[in-house]
Write a structure and sequence with these properties.
Helices cover 84% and strands 0% of the residues. It is mostly helical and 440 residues long. The protein has two domains: 219 residues, no CATH class; 191 residues, no CATH class. Helix 2 packs parallel to helix 4, helix 3 packs antiparallel against helix 4 and helix 5 runs antiparallel to helix 6.
């Protein structure tokens, strides 16, 4: 009986981890499904021209949102996961950086984008609508995501999952009300609905996190360079992720471009199962690596096995379900099934290298992480653009696999080097302490 009790207690952490992963993965899948439905509603009701403008402005905002806050959210998760007493300082640090950088980004976008996009024939209205979209998709998105990260830092995964699902469902409801119920057919009219939706969600999020404590305002100076190192790779990655779409739109037919865009969205959705694992593991990895990356080596190895297994299962599922997609998107997407089946396996090397990069981030090795991801994004964008220009879309697919496999090799080489260095430093420190003890 005693041994059974010991076994039961030993299995509890594992079962808890499985349940947390299921909840985390489920929330991301539900969120992704809701985003896809929102995407479909807007595409149908706004029409081709209006929807293309909406996507273009949103793409710009998606790049800018990684600059907003200057990477301070990762610092909050890492520092608070290790020491809860840091929460007030890191929250104040985040609020100040988000406010300052958000205002600068919105003003810059409002000054530049009206020269490229026309949402209203009246110049003043055009600037106002674009500004409203930038505030919504940069500042308010950052505030809502910050609430999710605050809960993750406190290992409150249930509340973090509620933020993800609630935000996605709220946008779907807003799109349905705006387009289906009230007949919104322009980006200008949708921008107002989108703004109201984001304000309501942001207010709800901040009411939820208030119970965790008030912020202490001030800049944590040592975290500024680490935050920049963390955010820059995501900006460069966003550029890389849009290079293929930009070049393909110039050299391929509308059908190829549309089918490829949907295939890319399916790839991103299939990666959510791995992302759910990474977001669950990150706070614990931050604790485990507090005294050296080598202490978490076995943990990271297990995460690699799990992430690879999950990504293979996700790729197989997408491959099998691909023939269903034309029924959802329409028979005009002739190339959709073949494109999805070609691209779905990219998620496997993608999952493998992100495990190494997440471990480096959790351990605070942001310069190395930024170098690998940044250089990979720059070279990847150039290779993708060149391959797409010369052999669309085959070159695009080939470039994807070349880039992701190369990232696996480089990422794990860098990770293992840091593990070896930490081990050597720890061994050197231990031998020095032993020698001093003998001398004493």
């Amino acid at each position: 009986m005693a041994s059974e009790g010991v076994k039961e207690r030993a299995h509890r952490p594992f079962l808890s981890m499985i349940m947390s992963y299921a909840a985390s993965g489920g929330s991301l899948v539900i969120g992704s499904a809701a985003q896809l439905l929102t995407f479909a509603i807007l595409a149908r009701w706004l029409g081709v021209h209006e929807f293309s403008v909406f996507v273009a402005i949103t793409a710009v905002a998606n790049i800018a949102v990684h600059l907003c806050g200057l990477g301070a959210m990762e610092c909050l998760v890492r520092r608070v996961a290790r020491d809860r007493s840091m929460y007030a300082r890191m929250l104040g640090h985040n609020i100040l950086l988000t406010a300052v950088s958000g205002v600068i980004l919105v003003l810059l976008g409002a000054a530049v984008l009206p020269f490229f996009f026309t949402l209203s024939p009246d110049p003043a209205t055009n600037v106002a609508v674009i500004t409203l979209m930038l505030i919504t998709n940069i500042v308010f998105v950052r505030i809502i995501v910050l609430a999710e990260q605050i809960f993750l830092a406190h290992s409150n995964f249930a509340s973090a999952n509620k933020v993800v699902v609630g935000f996605a469902v709220a946008r779907t409801i807003a799109a349905a009300l705006a387009c289906i119920a009230f007949g919104a057919a322009t980006v200008a009219s949708w921008a107002v609905w989108q703004f109201i939706c984001h304000v309501l969600v942001a207010v709800g999020c901040w009411r939820a996190v208030k119970v965790l404590g008030r912020p202490t305002y001030g800049i944590v100076r040592e975290e500024l360079p680490l935050g920049l190192y963390f955010s820059i790779p995501f900006i460069l990655r966003a550029v890389r992720q849009n290079a293929d779409l930009l070049v393909l739109s110039l050299v391929a037919t509308a059908e190829v471009m549309s089918s490829y865009s949907v295939a890319r969205r399916m790839l991103e959705s299939s990666y959510l199962s791995v992302e759910a694992l990474n977001r669950l593991i990150y706070p614990g990895s931050a604790k485990a690596t507090a005294t050296g990356l080598h202490h978490a080596f076995e943990r990271v190895r297990k995460v690699l096995i799990a992430a690879t297994s999950i990504s293979i299962a996700a790729a197989v599922a997408v491959f099998v379900l691909a023939p269903v997609l034309p029924y959802l998107f329409g028979k005009d997407y002739v190339s959709l099934v073949s494109f999805v089946r070609i691209l779905c396996w990219v998620v496997v090397p993608l999952a493998m290298w992100t495990v190494a990069m997440e471990a480096l981030g959790a351990s605070g090795h942001h310069p190395a992480r930024a170098s690998v991801m940044g250089l990979g994004s720059v070279l990847g964008a150039a290779l993708t653009a060149w391959a797409t220009w010369h052999a669309p879309p085959t070159g695009t697919f080939v470039s994807f696999y070349v880039i992701e496999i190369a990232m696996v090799l480089v990422s794990w080489t860098v990770f293992l080097r840091f593990v070896r260095n930490d081990r050597e430093q720890a061994a050197g420190g231990a031998s020095l302490a032993t020698r001093m003890a003998h001398e004493a």
